[in-house]
Specification:
Largest sheet: 2 strands, antiparallel
Strand order of the largest sheet: 1-2
Shape: elongated
Radius of gyration: 29 Å
Distance between the termini: 20 Å
Oligomer: single chain
Order of helices and strands: HHHHEEHHHHHHHHHHHHHHHHHHHHHHHH
Length: 518
């Protein structure tokens, strides 16, 4: 953070680069800062104002849909004859103050796209000729760069993307209402949705930026803008544009459609948009109305071997968690609870296999020594049992705290791996859902028998292998058991019969689990 504080002036300067690739790279970095931290809002006032001024120039409207400069229109691969003549015209007005009087000056140049010099060189000449004040020079440069780039389709798309990202950054960094009021004009939401409807594979990054801008708009004004977004996207209808787009995205992703899957960047932005929309009551009600639950459960049931796809399953579980706050009926009609528990079991089985492979690797002889092939033909369950016995023997050995600590350290050394972050996030989202559902009265008739299946076995493994799963999942698993016992005390004996309580007790005595992950 200190390094970025010192380099923010360099980042601000790079926004004036003639090369749009550099500008987009800086905007990507600033977008991460603005969305995930309050870095920009904590800058020194002078640096913050300078940065926001340049972002504002990048985000300014080009005239809107009514003037022939709608976002979807600008994203089309069209000839310049299909755009207004002002597309490549530089028209810039400013005032020069002399004492108590101010004089207006106008720079007007047509066909700026035919000028061979860089936008920076053109600006230098105009600043010298018209004596443009320092505070107006960035605005002039932005206009020059746009007019020069508009006739080139690739560079025009870069300008569109830069504009959308600048809007998102300003929204997340809490720019003033006076700035945002001009940027988020009436009709912008419809323009963003129109971009998503353009059938052109070259617009993947533009569409992702449009979805991020819609998501930022939800974050900004919440209820007043949410209804406009719901109407524009058709979110409350089963056959609406966004619900149909989402179902198409999912079906192609899980291989149930002949259509080409959406790029991961665009799919991620779509899931993120739906998650933020579901965070508010009006958005959640729209998602319930469009029947999205079945599609989400299909993703949960999908068994992809690609680890990068786990993030979509995680996002689906989180969406389900939000939607079931409003509608449990649809979720239960599709056996949603069993679906989540089965997914938890599936992921735990994969973790068992990884632990088994690691244990075999650790026990392989070094050098030229070879192990009997029969010893390699051991089932994962057998290795799992050996782990349990090893931990049990450690527990039954030394009784003092130092001995227990050494027992834990020795068991920890035998487990050289830890769960991957994508799978850990998925398990965490499922356990968080169960944690919320168990005390919820809406789930009362379905929760009572939830421990009759594979759930206790999955929980036992997470608790028993805390050094592999990490503190967060360990505490979540124990909390799920605690809540279940609290709300269903009469079924405690069944948990005892399945040795779940024994595993918890052993873990509490032996394992040194820290509050946060390393």
């Amino acid at each position: 953070k200190q390094w970025y504080q010192r380099r923010v002036r360099d980042l601000t300067t790079l926004l004036a680069a003639s090369d749009m690739d550099i500008v987009l790279a800086v905007l990507n970095l600033l977008y991460v800062f603005s969305k995930r931290s309050n870095f920009i809002s904590r800058l020194a006032p002078e640096r913050r104002c300078s940065l926001k001024l340049r972002l504002n120039h990048l985000a300014e409207s080009w005239g809107g849909k009514n003037n022939g400069f709608g976002l979807a229109t600008c994203c089309g691969d069209k000839t310049m004859s299909e755009f207004p003549l002002t597309a490549t015209t530089l028209h810039f007005e400013f005032y020069i103050t002399n004492g108590d009087t101010s004089q207006q000056r106008v720079i007007h140049k047509e066909q700026v796209n035919t000028i061979s010099e860089s936008s920076a060189k053109v600006m230098e000449d105009l600043v010298s000729e018209y004596q443009v004040p320092t505070g107006k020079q960035m605005g002039l440069l932005t206009n020059i760069r746009l007019a020069q780039s508009f006739s080139n389709y690739t560079r025009r798309l870069q300008c569109v993307q830069a504009r959308l990202q600048a809007i998102s950054i300003l929204v997340y960094s809490n720019a003033g209402n006076d700035i945002l009021q001009n940027l988020l004009y009436d009709g912008l939401i419809e323009e963003l949705v129109d971009v998503l409807g353009v059938n052109d594979h070259r617009l993947t990054e533009i569409k992702a930026a449009a979805l991020k801008t819609l998501t930022a708009t939800i974050h900004l004004e919440r209820t007043p803008r949410i209804h406009a977004i719901i109407d524009a996207t058709g979110m409350s209808s089963y056959h609406g544009f966004f619900p149909s787009l989402f179902r198409s995205c999912v079906l192609s992703m899980i291989g149930e459609s002949n259509e080409r899957p959406l790029p991961q960047m665009l799919s991620t932005a779509l899931f993120s948009f739906l998650y933020h929309l579901a965070s508010y009551e009006a958005g959640g009600e729209a998602l319930v109305s469009c029947g999205i639950m079945e599609t989400l459960l299909r993703i949960v049931q999908w068994r992809s071997t690609n680890k990068s796809q786990l993030t979509f399953v995680t996002r689906s579980v989180r969406l389900i968690d939000l939607i079931t706050n409003m509608d449990v009926t649809t979720f239960t009609s599709y056996s949603g609870l069993n679906c989540l528990i089965n997914r938890l079991q599936h992921e735990v089985e994969i973790c068992k296999k990884e632990l088994y492979e690691d244990s075999v690797a650790d026990e392989l002889p070094r050098g030229n020594e070879r192990k009997d092939e029969k010893s390699m033909d051991v089932a994962p369950e057998a290795v799992e049992l050996s782990f349990d016995r090893r931990l049990s023997s450690d527990i039954d050995g030394p009784t003092d705290s130092e001995g227990n600590s050494k027992a834990f350290q020795s068991s920890l050394k035998s487990l050289n791996s830890c769960i991957i972050s994508q799978r850990a996030a998925l398990l965490k989202s499922i356990l968080n859902f169960l944690k919320r559902a168990i005390p919820d009265q809406l789930f009362s008739e379905y929760i009572r028998n939830v421990m009759d299946g594979s759930l206790p076995t999955s929980l036992k493994h997470i608790i028993n292998k805390a050094e592999y799963y990490g503190p967060s999942l360990f505490f979540l698993a124990t909390e799920v058991v605690t809540l279940y016992v609290f709300h269903e005390p009469s079924l405690l004996s069944s948990l005892q019969d399945r040795k779940l309580t024994d595993v918890i007790l052993d873990a509490l005595v032996v394992k040194e689990v820290y509050v946060t992950d390393r």
